[in-house]
Amino acid sequence: MIQKISNENIKAVYTWDFEDLFNSIHLDDLVLVLHEIFLDCNLDNKISFDKFKYLYGLVLFENYVSFDGFLFRQKIGIPQGAACSNCLANIYLYYYENKRKINDSLKLYRYIDDLIIFGKNGIDISIKTDFYPKYLKLNATSSNTLKANCLDLNIEIINDKIITKIYDKRQSFNFDIIKIPHWFSNLHINIFRNILLNFKYRINRLTTTEYDKDKDLNMFYTYAILKEYPINFLITYLYS
Q1: What are the φ and ψ backbone dihedral angles of 176, each rounded to 5 degrees?
Q2: Residues 6+ apart with CB under 8 A from 3
Q3: pLDDT per residue over 51-105, tens digit each?
Q4: pTM of the model
Q5: What are phi and psi of 119, to 5 degrees?
Q6: Apex CA 86: angle with CA 142 and CA 113, to 5°?
Q7: Alpha-carbon distance 44 to 141, whole Å?
Q8: How far apart are CA 140 and CA 155, in angstroms?
């Protein structure tokens, strides 16, 4: 995403979150979307329409939960435990995104229920999200058009340049978080090695400035020392 827009003249960034997306999607509307996609994509060459309806019917309308001796059937929203639920939510939202009018001044990206839009000007573009069904509730998650957090990424626009670094919302929690296993855990040494290498590669890939890279690596190093990781092991796989 960042690589694609790095050469664009980005002036603003906006983020939103769909509130309770899975439970909010109207199943009757989702069914209409699935039917239209089936016809538009000529899926009848792959599967019969009756079988298609039978399969999505099993997913959407045959979900039961046992509680306190009673059996309940889910009637509202997409089941959150189904393996294909993410795909159904993505298909539903993409259907409306694909129908929106193309605006070259906006770059829209979405991951499940997290939405980010980059603008080539600094005006308020919140009205540009009205192509989604009006009953879905979008909550703005950024208040500054030059800075936003999206998933595990902090994005900031400085002098018309996009600067990124790792964002971990757990750092704002008022209690301790176990980020990595203790060195004396009953784990193979390759697991500890991969933890360090994955963190280092993630930092190098997502962080723009050397200052932020060093800051995050040193913070992780300090945390690992508290977990009794050997210094030589940390230096070898974090800094080399």
Answers
A1: -70, 140
A2: none
A3: 999 999 998 998 888 899 999 988 889 988 788 899 999 999 999 988 876 666 7
A4: 0.80
A5: -115, 145
A6: 10
A7: 41
A8: 15
DSSP one-letter string for 135-185: TS-EEE--SBTTEEEETTEEEEEETTEEEEEE--GGGGSSS----S--TTS
In whole angstroms, give the CA distance from residue 29 to residue 52: 16
Longest dimension (CA), the chain: 63
Tokens of 108: 């829209």
Residue for token digits 């999505």? Answer: 56
In degrees rounded to 5, what are phi and psi of residue 71? -110, 125
DSSP state of 45: G
| Per-residue model confidence as pLDDT tens digits over 156-199 | 998 888 899 999 888 778 888 888 999 999 999 999 999 999 99
Q: Which two tokens stand for residue 126?
A: 């919140």
